[in-house]
């Protein structure tokens, strides 16, 4: 009987869950008795295929479409039919091995939205058919004695922090692959239901780009009575402006290099704009004027020392941009000491924070500036992203599963 079941599944490439009791009388018992590994069959009627980078050259528009083996299925997982995936700067860093050596082949993309098509029995908050999303994190240890996981800060877990792509799962479950693909498999704890009223193309880039700035803004007191500066108004920074306003900051100051961007930044909702390349006295003119700065710039040549002089006494500077190699410019200790300045960093956000952010986006009608690109043209899109053409986020649309 087992051989018969294997033959059927192997020939038709379908899930045994689709067979009925009348097809095989003892199927209920077999479901309990045998696991997917023991049956040695593929448990889905869909294929995991996507854009794969095979070397640092892939960042130059040389990804190749191909099949990949997702992590081993567990009853804690969710399979997602990908409809949308945002293009994040992290994707380019990973493709080029900018932060560390990338474990090729790698399918990038960690701003994933789509439909849940398979849900493990241990996942209680998602059902098949739900519109869901995945950000930059796919796993943490999730243990009750973990100081981070037990307090809703899974993004800082130091025991088993698995990224959505380019990481290895514990317990021999395999490698993580991202969302430039037809399907994605991720641990259900990090799969978030997308609320009604938020279009998929808007939700996707919020899952990394949005949460990367929302979390430090919220954690560091952005709100009424505060003046907030956003350094670098690009894909990340434009979310900084949007969410600083949504959180109720009295004044939001966009800080970027060129005066040519001023009109766009003010249209996003900023109240003031500082062009650092076009005004040699910008730091002096704006000294001690800002309560909180969130910097999205990922350049080791940025004028960090001057950014710090913009802070009021007891002000806070948070770095979220990550340069290749991780190096930041030197700063003068006396700037910190004489102004009581706090300097810190922030990395993405937890599942609960992502849910909070998405709910706020619906409530406050946060509307990111996105440009939709066909998934089939992902290579052209990443080249355009690298060249700085995005205004302000590219979102890949998988036309097999959604309309462009």
Automatic annotation (TrEMBL):
UniProt-recorded Gene Ontology molecular function terms: alcohol dehydrogenase (NADP+) activity; zinc ion binding
A Gene Ontology BP annotation from the UniProt entry: alcohol metabolic process
Cofactor(s) essential for the protein: Zn(2+)
PROSITE patterns per UniProt: ADH_ZINC
One matching Pfam family: ADH_zinc_N
EC category name: oxidoreductase
Keyword Hydrolase: no
Stored SUPFAM superfamilies: GroES-like, NAD(P)-binding Rossmann-fold domains
Highest taxon listed in the record's lineage: Eukaryota
Keywords associated with the record: Metal-binding, NADP, Oxidoreductase, Phosphoprotein, Zinc
Phosphoprotein as UniProt keyword: yes
Subunit structure: Homodimer.
Stated family: Belongs to the zinc-containing alcohol dehydrogenase family.
Protein name as annotated: alcohol dehydrogenase (NADP(+))
């Amino acid at each position: 009987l087992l051989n018969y079941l294997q033959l059927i599944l192997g020939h038709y490439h379908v899930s045994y869950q689709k067979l009925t009791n009348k097809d095989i009388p003892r199927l209920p018992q077999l479901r309990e008795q045998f696991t997917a590994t023991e049956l040695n069959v593929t448990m889905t009627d869909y294929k995991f295929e996507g854009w794969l980078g095979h070397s640092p050259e892939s960042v130059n528009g040389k990804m190749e479409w191909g099949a990949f083996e997702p992590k081993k299925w567990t009853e804690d997982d969710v399979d997602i039919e990908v409809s949308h995936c945002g293009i994040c700067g992290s994707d380019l860093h990973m493709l080029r091995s900018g932060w560390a050596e990338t474990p090729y082949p790698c399918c990038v993309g960690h701003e994933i939205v789509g439909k849940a098509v398979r849900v493990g029995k241990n996942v209680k908050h998602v059902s098949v058919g739900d519109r869901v999303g995945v950000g930059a994190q796919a796993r943490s240890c999730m243990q009750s004695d973990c100081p981070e996981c037990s307090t809703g800060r899974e993004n800082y877990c130091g025991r088993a922090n698995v990224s959505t792509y380019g990481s290895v799962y514990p317990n021999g479950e395999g490698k993580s692959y991202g969302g430039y693909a037809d399907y994605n498999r991720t641990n259900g704890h990090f799969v978030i239901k997308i609320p009604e009223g938020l279009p998929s193309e808007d939700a996707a880039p919020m899952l990394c780009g949005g949460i990367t700035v929302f979390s430090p803004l919220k954690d560091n007191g952005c709100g009424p009575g505060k003046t907030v500066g956003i350094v670098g108004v690009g894909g990340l920074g434009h979310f900084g402006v949007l969410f600083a306003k949504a959180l109720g900051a009295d004044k939001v100051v966009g800080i970027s290099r060129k005066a040519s961007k001023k009109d766009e930044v003010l249209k996003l909702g900023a109240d003031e704009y500082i062009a650092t390349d076009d005004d040699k006295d910008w730091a002096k003119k704006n000294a001690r004027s800002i309560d909180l700065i969130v910097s999205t710039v990922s350049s080791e040549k940025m004028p960090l020392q001057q950014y710090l002089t913009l802070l009021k006494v007891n002000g806070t500077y948070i770095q979220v941009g990550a340069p290749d190699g991780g190096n930041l410019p030197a700063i003068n200790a006396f700037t910190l000491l004489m102004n009581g300045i706090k300097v810190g960093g922030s990395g993405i956000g937890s599942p609960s924070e992502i849910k909070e952010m998405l709910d706020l986006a619906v409530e406050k009608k946060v509307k990111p500036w996105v440009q939709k690109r066909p998934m089939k043209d992902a290579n052209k899109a990443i080249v355009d992203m690298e060249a700085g053409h995005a205004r302000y986020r590219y979102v890949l649309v998988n036309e097999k599963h959604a309309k462009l």
